[in-house]
Specification:
This protein is of the alpha+beta class. It has 13 helices and 18 strands. It binds adenosine-5'-diphosphate and magnesium ion.
Length: 399
């Protein structure tokens, strides 16, 4: 789960990371008022969206007056910010963060990620701050410092000092960098984060080490342990299809293709998506309806998949191990009677009581296209989608 920059800053500051003074605003007037409260004569107005790359997209503006702040806000509120991380549809701006402008001397990159190969938290840092890590690794790979943390002992001060020295931090500032690294590591491990990124971490003209940007991502599976973090969820920043699914207890990831997938089990869902690609189609989603594919769950899944306007065929792929194909078939029939599905539906059932399941599907009289194997199902889905497409084009031509 992602959180906003201002939320990540508040969390990290609780762990000893220094951040500039700032305040949140929901309107241009409030932003100007917040700036007056903060004092000073230069501020930065920052769009709060769950994405980086805001600076280059007009989502971070330096202001030196009330008027400039209001103007910056007018250009942000209610708009969609499109950055290279948001996709073409962008993310809505409903909050801005007003922050004291900091005199930057040097910029650094600092990131903490879960390194799967070493099964450890890895600290990634570079003296080439301000650039995205992808750019740094493409253009200045030698500048990247990596260090993995031994979980039994946590981040040691000497290790943090080594990172600071490798970054070329002046000796007088090393202790501030160590404090920042320790704060980030503690926040990461104590709150079950999967990513902490400070880009840029800056050294100021008056020798302070400050986090100018902050990004944190948390492990969904651990949120039950951190109600104060799960409260920070902002649905306005999520793919509406995915938040609807999460609210219904289904694992759903929206994709760009046209073939909707309803599958029980994450591994089978992945295999189904691969097979659709192999057959020349593209999946519209990943959807795991879980083990107990009850009629209610199948109906919910259909509603969810059909709410995506790009879906032109639906492939149902169920393997009944503990489950039973006859129950699933009943669920499927009930769902198709309840939910309006006006695209071809392809069903492949396998496992326990498959014959009974097939009989229920035949008896229902519903135009379900059946398949024996996964490959067959994928091929039929692609053909059905293509036929549906030519039919739709013909209809449009007739009109
Ligand atoms: P993003 O990474 O989404 O573009 P950042 O928060 O990193 O957003 O802001 C972009 C750039 O704006 C930073 O690299 C920094 O140069 C500048 N900036 C951000 N916050 C401040 C601040 N409080 N004072 C001065 N400059 C800032
Ligand atoms: Mg940044």
């Amino acid at each position: 789960m992602d959180v906003h920059e201002y939320q990540a800053k508040e969390i990290l500051s609780g762990f000893g990371v220094e951040v500039p003074p700032g305040a949140l605003a929901y309107s241009p007037e409030q932003a100007a008022y917040r700036a007056r409260e903060l004092g000073g004569d230069k501020w930065v107005v920052k769009a709060q969206v769950h994405a980086g790359g805001r600076g280059k997209a007009g989502g971070v503006k330096l202001c030196d007056s009330d008027h400039a702040i209001q103007e910056a806000c007018e250009s942000m509120f209610g708009r969609k910010l499109v950055t290279h991380q948001t996709g073409p549809e962008g993310k809505g701006i409903y909050r801005v963060y007003v922050e004291a402008a900091v005199p930057i001397e040097r910029e650094f990159y600092l990131g903490l990620v879960m390194d799967r190969s070493s099964q450890r938290v890895m600290i990634v840092a570079s003296a080439e701050g301000g650039m995205e890590i992808e750019e740094i690794s493409a253009e200045k790979p030698d500048s990247i410092v990596r260090s993995t943390v031994e979980p039994a002992v946590g981040l040691q001060d000497f290790q943090a000092r080594e990172i600071a020295f490798e970054l070329g931090i002046e000796p007088g500032l090393v202790s501030q960098v160590v404090r920042t690294l320790q704060g980030c590591y503690r926040a990461f491990s104590e709150l079950d984060a999967t990513m902490v990124e400070i880009n840029p971490l800056v050294v100021t003209g008056d020798d302070r080490v400050i986090a100018l940007d902050a990004k944190m991502t948390f492990d969904y599976n651990a949120l039950f342990r951190h109600p104060q973090i799960s409260e920070l969820r902002d649905k306005s920043q999520e793919d509406p299809r995915e938040s609807r699914a999460a609210d219904r207890g289904l694992s759903y990831v929206g994709l760009d293709g046209n073939i909707g997938c309803i599958v029980n089990g994450a591994g089978l869902a992945m295999a189904t998506m691969d097979t659709i690609m192999l057959a020349g189609g593209a999946p519209a989603n990943f959807l795991d309806i879980g083990g107990g594919a009850t009629p209610e769950r199948v109906a919910k899944a259909f509603r969810l998949v059909m709410s995506d306007k790009n879906v032109q065929a639906v492939l149902v792929n169920i393997f009944a191990g503990i489950n039973r194909c006859d129950w699933v078939a009943e669920g499927l029939v009930q769902a198709l009677n309840e939910v309006q599905v006006d695209v071809p539906v392809i069903a492949r059932l396998a496992g326990t009581n498959v014959e009974e399941g097939q009989r229920i599907l035949s008896k229902s009289g519903l135009p379900i296209i059946r398949a024996g194997t996964l490959m067959e199902a994928a091929e039929r889905a692609v053909v059905a989608w293509q036929n549906d497409l030519t039919q739709a084009t013909r209809m449009r031509a007739v009109k």
